[in-house]
Amino acid sequence: MTQLETPKTTAVVTHHEVPQKWKWYDYFTFNIDHKVIGIQYLVTAFIFYLIGGLMAMAIRIELNTPDADFLDPNLYNAFMTNHGTLMIFMWIVPAAIGGFGNFLIPLMVGARDMAFPKLNAIAFWLNPPAGALLLGSFFFGGSQSGWTAYPPLSLITANTAQSMWILAIVLVGTSSILGALNFVVTILKMKVPSMQWTQMPLFCWAILATSVLALLSTPVLAAGLVLLLFDINFGTSFFKPDAGGNVVLYQHLFWFYSHPAVYLMILPIFGIMSEVIPVHARKPIFGYKAIAYSSLAICIIGLFVWVHHMFTSGTPPWMRMFFTISTLIVAVPTGVKIFGWVATLWGGKIRFTSAMLFAIGLLSMFVVGGLGGVTLGTAPFDIHVHDTYYVVGHFHYVLFGGSVFGIYAGIYHWFPKMTGRMMNETWGRVHFALTFVGTHLTFLPMHQLGLQGMPRRVAMYDPQFAGINHLCTIGAMILGISVIPFFLNAIWSWMNGPKASDNPWEALTLEWTTTSPPAIENWEVLPVVTHGPYDYGRSDEGKPTAQTAASV
Amino acid sequence: MKQIPLGIITLIAGILITLISLWVGQNNHLLPVQASAQAPLVDNFFNVMVAIGTALFLVVQGAILFSVIKFRRRRGDNGDALPIEGSFPLEILWTIIPGIIVIGLGVYSVDVYTEMGGMDEIGHHGMTHESMMAQPKSNPIGIGSTPATEGKPPSLVVNVTGMQYAWLFNYPDSDVNTGELHVPIGQDVLLNISANDVIHSFWVPQFRLKQDAIPGQPTQLRFTATKTGTYPIVCAELCGGYHGSMRTSVVVHTPEDYDRWLTENRVAQQPEMDQTVAVNP
């Protein structure tokens, strides 16, 4: 339980000239306030989510029939490539780390801003040009070699578009490194002294693990991509087999980042889950330390599993076995988290808010995705289903059922804090129902497609798979429709929604002790932590209810 | 009426979940026909994982469903729940049990992989001298000899070349070139796989075997077909715009049919051997 007091140690800030709230146009400037930057990240990411979603709709319409009758096959590949790239690099990573991380980390650790505010703004402003490069690449045919960009294919198709794609990824990679550095320093150095490490919200632990992972792995991807750029434009031959290059080397460099990227996408979401579930179940999180340490364990083990993407390419047998075992072991800390959340629900007093619905939805989706992931981790079975729709189904369960549900849960949970207004709960439930049904209908049948023999990344396929594909397309249309109630709800509520109190969910983490939306510099006086972040159900003495926390 | 003790309910639930999982594991019918010696190994392994997965799915989803029904907030109750922070024995239990399961699966998968021929490090038994010279860089990687065929030369060697957007099959012993793979049933076949332009991936779903064709890196697949019929060969690695249409078939013949096919094609291809490469319908 946290609480605002006015002890002698806190500095009183005097900034009478500074306005207490940002105006709308501040969100379009080089603002250095972490909350503005967080919202900039989120809004930009949601725009790219819509664009990437429209691409997904086009892909599913194409796949409704076995022939390539809707899109030209090269354009199909460009859509497929950029759908994946946008969703990973411009939507989930910026929304989960950049958006929620920036908005929440200083508030949660009791800081006035990030450690390096200007660096933070620079990190954000690297994103729009990256998105522009990706979208602009369509004027040059669009990068067509998949989001993995394996050479030699990426060396011979649509060179200008591929170069633009590389530059875009290097830009967001740089953004990611700058952001990660900022998070590590902020969490390690700017936590209020009164907060013990074991009193730090689990979202902070998750972002810490994410940032360490990003710092270790992103430079390797950048290196691989720069070599690829040289091969395309400057006549080098790092990955050109007929000139002594090695195409498998690229795969190692690529997956050394891009497998951990999966954890970059899911660890912050795990953090969001650990915040949302206890509040709406009115119970302390079950096994705080286990959940915190499992984030760090996933971060470390996650660096040693990348070869499981290469079981059918040129990898020696010992490597396939080592990476089978290491991949399977990641399931253990992930399981610890899932069991922890289920146990938090058990015996709670669950309030079915929209945020909680998405959190519980995530939990049940992630179990399916996780079990599929274990099967994929084993070399002998992976050989059969590698590069098939089984994999597509699996990673959409993890990334849509996992990450996207988590982002939605986070938006419904923190919307009052971010905007000072409540979202409409009824429309939130409609949004949840459509999303939940759509996700299962789209991605569950894909497992069957892959097992039966449909490869991924194809514009045309064997007619025997037409029936199941039709089902997936219907599901995808439902998913497409599901964003409409959400976006209308978010925009309308932001402008006209009922005013939110400072702590509408009666949560106990520090961000709820300031005003909604938080004032510039977050607090008049820095908060002092007197209790843990999840002390629900304890004695009422000194417990900040919505009113007391606001009034102090 | 007295309540049934919790232990009994748990026991019955456990037995039910076990029975359901075992049944689903054996009767999922998710995979296509088995047509190679490797397929039953992979399928048995998959079925074990399905059984374990079903059990875990039922337990976890059951717990979630039970919680959201039983522990929903009652109208008018705005209080908090009991502050249970954790349980060390429970946390140890749910760390150790998954740990044992995944390590068991890991050991089992190594075993299956060895049986399939994946641990064959030497892997150059079937290499002809020509291909050794053409690809001097390294030994082929992929599925090689199984413990049963270790050290024995394969009965049939086929050179497979992937190119945008077709597969070429060359039978070095009989100078036959085709666009469709023909193999006799029950024979130890070795495919030497290479790629001309970009990475392709040779996949026969009914064989449960897949191997990338990588420019500059020889790869191999060694298998025994166990069921006659025609099965699709699919390119599984994105290789360009028409990747989806890079499909052909593998025909598994009886030995007599195979000999007939080989004789016909050898004769048919003799006159124009030096002009065409691979245009057998």
The biggest sheet of chain A amounts to: 2 strands, antiparallel
Count of extended strands of chain A: 2
Average of the residue pLDDT scores of chain B? 87
Q: Sheet with the most strands of chain B?
A: 6 strands, mixed
Per DSSP, the total helix count of chain A is 16
Strand arrangement, largest sheet of chain B? 1-9-6-2-3-4
Estimate the strand proportion of chain B: 15-25%
Low-confidence stretches of chain A: 1-17, 544-552
What fraction, in percent, of the residue positions of chain B are helical? 25-40%
Helicity level of chain A: 55-70%
Helix and strand element order of chain A: EHHHHHHHHHHHHHHHEH
Based on CA atoms alone, the radius of gyration of chain B comes out at: 26 Å
Integer average pLDDT of chain A: 91
**Cα end-to-end separation of chain A:** 15 Å
Describe the protein in words.
The complex is a heterodimer of chains A (552) and B (281). Chain A is an all-alpha fold and 552 residues long. In chain A, 65% of the residues lie in helices and 1% in strands. Chain A is built from 16 helices and 2 strands. The longest helix of chain A has 37 residues. Chain A is globular and about 70 Å long. The two termini of chain A are 15 Å apart. By secondary structure, chain B is α/β, with parallel strands linked by helices. Helix content of chain B is 37%, strand content 22%. Chain B is built from 5 helices and 11 strands, in the order ααααβββββββββββα. In chain B, the strands form 2 sheets. A 6-stranded mixed sheet of chain B has the order 1-9-6-2-3-4. A 5-stranded mixed sheet of chain B has the order 5-11-10-7-8. In chain B, strand 2 and strand 3 form a beta hairpin. Chain B is elongated, with a radius of gyration of 26 Å. The termini of chain B are far apart. About 6% of the residues of chain B have low confidence. The chains are: A mainly alpha (552), B alpha/beta (281). Chains A and B meet through helix 2, helix 8, helix 9, helix 10 and helix 11 of A and helix 2, helix 3, strand 8 and strand 10 of B.
